[in-house]
Amino acid sequence: MKLPNGPQYPALVQKLQWILSPMSFMEACAQRYGDIFTMQLNEPMVFVSNPQALQQILTSDTKEFTAPSDRNTAFEPMLGKNSLITISGEVHRRQRQLLMPPLHGDRMRTYGQVINDVTEQVISQWQVGKSFCVHSAMQLITMRVIMQAVFGLYEGLRAQELEEILAAMLNETSPWRVIQLYFPALQKDFGPKSSWGKFIRRRERVHQLLNAEIQERRDQPDSSRTDILSLLMAARDEAGRPMTDAELCDELMTLLVAGHETTATALTWALYWIHKFPSVREKLVQELDSLGDHPDCNSIFKAPYLNAVYCETLRIYPVAMLTFPRVVKTPVSLCGYKLEPNTVVMGSIYLTHQREDLYPEPQQFKPERFLERQFSPYEFLPFGGGVRRCIGMAFAQFEMKVVLAKILTSQELALVDDRDMPPKRRGLVTAPARPIQMVVKSQREAKSRTLETSTK
Ligand code: HEM
């Protein structure tokens, strides 16, 4: 079998390049080899950024391709073996069915008030003339929102400790930690002060706190609760079995981790772009002001320019650079290459979003592109697609829009430093290369806007 072309130098060098500067490595490969090429990482991996090929992969990812869990091992130390991300096949399908309803449809309405209140809490700490770190503020918002969605109203010492330890675990994003994730042999516990030792002790404590919460709910059942944990505990599979404690614990960890850092990073980028270009901010504020003093979540969700800014933010530097790996199941022809079973294929979200033929001047932030034309789910795919498409997509989209609306209608902010901001790998996400600081110029109005949570 002849794989698509790609760099010929040693696999170890390619792997280090991938870990340290993934975007420029992908760009260099695309420039030289086109929209399908092979990188040598743990094994040969075919990177794809051709929309027709992506459609083929993502629409037949149970027939010609599979979305196996054994290629997602980098997530296992953090999320466990029972996470939606680390399971596959029939078990994965059933688990997705359990997790989808609380993250979709009418349920969004109930989260509107939570998102609004949490954002209000966080921005009430900002002071005129003072600067703050945007990423830390966004992390606090998204962490509290996902905690409340998962556990319901959640206060007290256990909630506080959980919030603190998870934040500490997720803020450990040094290149060394990423190298450890890619090289399991380096995952060694050399005591509580060592990098991996710290990680496993924190993880142990998080598991204790989650299990204490599960146990308390088993001892004192309350059928009126509608939070995600209660729904998961009440769920039964086709044989009438409930989820085990180990399954519950890993799924909670998955939602808390996946539902928090990705959205916080996307919000940080959005605030950067909006304030980098005063005309973008002006247009957005005008649109949001026109929705009235108490806009309902539906109007915010549908506001066209806000939607365009949200899409362009996730296009230019997609928080997730890649889809999860797919593996060829039966011999297929992809972009003219005959791929044999077991070939690993990655959808490069980043390179697809940088295609000049789809997005002229792809390095420019231009929300108008999303007003001028519609892109297919294989041209614009910040949440991946197919059987592993992000289950938090609706939740993240809703949360980002409500948080941005709340901030922009109540605060006048400015970037402390408006130099161009390149992207950089931060753990497993694409984040700004330097911390972004903003300053509060003024509060836009004394009566802070509230969100009307009924939908019309
Ligand atoms: C801006 C925010 C987010 C982005 C950009 C994002 C992106 C992605 C991407 C690209 C995938 C892989 C899809 C594929 O391989 O086809 C994914 C999967 C996943 N995401 Fe998200 N995500 C975000 C927010 C969230 C939130 C809020 C949650 C949970 C509340 C979440 C939970 C998950 C889970 C559990 C999976 C695995 C799905 C599976 O394997 O079936 N994500 N996400």
TrEMBL record:
Listed SUPFAM superfamilies: Cytochrome P450
Any one Pfam family match given in the protein's UniProt record, by short name: p450
Superkingdom as given in the UniProt entry: Bacteria
Family matches, as Gene3D superfamilies: Cytochrome P450
Chain residues that bind heme: C390
InterPro entries: Cyt_P450, Cyt_P450_CS, Cyt_P450_E_grp-I, Cyt_P450_sf, Cytochrome_P450_monoxygenase
Annotated keywords: Heme, Iron, Metal-binding, Monooxygenase, Oxidoreductase
Requisite cofactors: heme
Annotated transmembrane regions: none
A molecular function GO annotation: iron ion binding
UniProt similarity note: Belongs to the cytochrome P450 family.
Name of this chain's protein: Cytochrome P450
Organism per entry: Halotia branconii CENA392
